[in-house]
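Figure 2 data, in text form.
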Amino acid sequence: MTTFDTVLVANRGEIACRIIRTLQRLGIRSVAVYSDADRGARHVGLADVAVRLGPARAQLSYLDQGAVLAAAAATGAQAIHPGYGFLSENQAFAQACADAGVVFIGPSVHALTVMGDKIRAKKHVGDSGVPVIPGVSLPGQTDEQLTAAAPGVGYPMLIKPSAGGGGKGMVRVDRPGDLAEALVTARRVAAAAFGDDTLLIERFVSTPRHIEVQVLADTHGGVIHLGERECSLQRRHQKVIEEAPSPLLDDATRARIGEAACAAARSVGYAGAGTVEFLVSDAAPGEFFFMEMNTRLQVEHPVTEMITGIDLVEWQVRVAAGERLDHRQEDVVLTGHAIEARVYAENPERGFLPTTGTVLALREATGEGIRVDSALTAGLVVSADYDPMLAKVIAWAPDRAGALARLDRALADTLVLGLRTNVEYLRLLVQDADVAAGRLDTGLIERKLPGLAFRVVDDHVLAAAALFLHRAAWAVPPGADLAWSRPTGWRMGPHVPTRYVLATNATESVTVTVEGSPAGASVSIDGRPALPASLSPARHPEEAFGVEVDGVLRMLSIAEADNGAGLRLWIGGDGFSVDVVHRTGAEILADELAGLGQVAGAAGPDVRTPMPGTVVAVHTESGALVAVGQAILTVEAMKMEHQLTAATAGIVTLTLKPGDLVRLDQIVATVTAAPDPGAPGPDTATVNADKGAPQ
C-alpha cells in the first residue's frame, strides 16, 4: 500500500499518540521525538523508538529543525508527519525535508508559502473568485499604516497575525483609542508564537459562525471535500467544541461552500489533508467569506472521521507516498452527527488561566459512539512549557441531540485529578439551551460565561476531605495500642472531636470537626450542627469512595499529593473536580500573625500569581510607588500572558526578573502603604528638637 516502512512523528501530546496508532494499524514503524520535559510522556511509550531532541523549550527541541531531521536520519525514517502546530505549516522545514531526501507528510512548499500567510492567501483566493472579508491585508504594514487604514475598515475590527492561527495574537478592537495598544500586544504575541510579527486587520462580522471545510487531495489532481465542521463555540478565538455537520447549512449551501473549498485547494495544487475556513453570517447562511486555509491536520479532524469513516491520517500518509484518492465526491456520505470537546489544563473559575500538576488519578470515557484522543496517563507531569490541551472527547450518534447527550455522559465519566481542567465547563456548555438548539455564534461563550453556575466546595466535598484525612489517622500500625493511637476524641469528660482546617483557596479556610470512626462519624462544618457522615471505599475504581452525609450518598474520587506546601487533596466526580489543602497548626498561626494590624475588608498587600509560569516582563522596580491597577509584572504559561496589577496603592517590593519561574498562588510582590507625606519624618523631628520643640 505504501513505500514507507518508518515514519517519524515530529510532535507531542494527543496528536502524536493519534498518528502513531494509525501508523501501527498500517504496519509502519513509528519514531517519536521528545524533549526533556516529555521523557515520560505517553507518545514516547507508544512509539517503536523514541529520540531525544533537547531541553523543554520548544525552540530547543520540537522546533529545532536540525535535531528533527537528524532523528529521522538516525532512525531510517523515510517520511516525517508534523501533526499540527510546531513545524506543520513551516515551509522552510518542508523545504529542508526535501533537501534531506525525507518526505514531508503535508502539502508542497508552494501551497505552504501561499496559504501560510493570511495576507497572501486572502489576495490569492480573492483573485480566484472566492469571497473574502473586507480589510487591509498588505505585507510589511507598520502600526502607523494600519492605524491610517483602520477608518476604511470600520469598527469593530480584528487584528490578526499573518503567519499563524489558533487565535494566538488575535485581538478585537472596538474603539479607535484602543488600536495602538492592541497593535503592540498583537505584534509581541505574533513574534513570540510564530517568529513573524506581520499583522492584518479586517472587519469583525457580528454574530458570525465559524464553519470550515475538510478537503483531501492527491498529487494527481484529485480533490474532494468531506463536508464541513461547525467551530463557532470559541473562547478568545480558540475553538472549544466542534461538530460535524453544521446545524446551520442546508444541502445546497453545503455543496457550494464545499466546492469553494476545493477551488481554493486546486488553486495552489494542494495535496494531502487541509481545511479551508469560512466566516458565515448567522443571519444570512447562504453568504460565506474565506478566512484562511490551514495546510495541515486540524485538532477537530475526528468529527469528520466519525461521520465519513475516512481515516485522515492514513490518507495523508498514502497521498504522501504517491497514491491516488480512491474516493470520488459522490462517494462521500455524511452519516449521523459527531461533536468534539477539547479538554484543557486550565481553570475556568480563574479566567481560564493555564494550570499545571501531576495526574494523580485518571478515568477516561468509553462506550458506544465514544472516542477519546488523549495524551493523559496516571503520573504524567503537565508543565507550563506547551499548549494546555490534554485530550479530546468525541461522541457520535445518528442525530445531533443523541450526540450531545452522549458527549455529556462521556464528560461526566471523565476524571482527571491532580490539576484543574475545563471538564465541568464543557458539560455546562453542552447542556446550554442555545447550544442544544444549534443557535451558535463565535461570541456565544463570552456572553454565557458570566451566567454559568460552577459547582463549589460543598458539604459533601468538605466531609469527604476531612473523613479521608481522618481515615489515614485512624489507621493504626500493627501492634499499636488502639486506645492511644486512634483519634477517637476520648476524654475523661466529654469527647473532643478531631479538628481539620481545609484551605479552599489561597486566602480562605474551613474548619471541619470529626468525631467517631470514618465509617460512622459525626461531622460539623464551621461550627454548624453536626451531621452523620461516613466514608467507605468503593470496589472500583481504587480511588473512589462512597461519601454519605446526612443520608445522602455520593461517589467521589480522592487523591492526595504533598508538594512541600501542605497535603493537597483532589476530589472529583460526575465531571467536576476541586482541590483543598490540609493546613497545619503552624501555618494557621503564621497567617494569623501576618494578619495582625490589617484592616478588615481592606485589600491585602500580597500580589499572587493566579497561574504557574514564567515571568516575561517586569513593569516597575522594587521601592517604586504604584497606584491601584498599575501593572507590576507579566507571567506567561502555555502561550498565554497574564498581567499582574496592584490591588492597593503604595510602595512595591519585588525580587523577580524576566525568566524566573513562579508557582500557582506564589506571592510575587507586596505593596505596603506609603508614608503619609504630612506626617513628620525623622529629619523634621530632629530639626524641631533643635528648636526646642517637644521630642
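Caption note: The CA atoms of residues 302 and 394 lie 7 Å apart.
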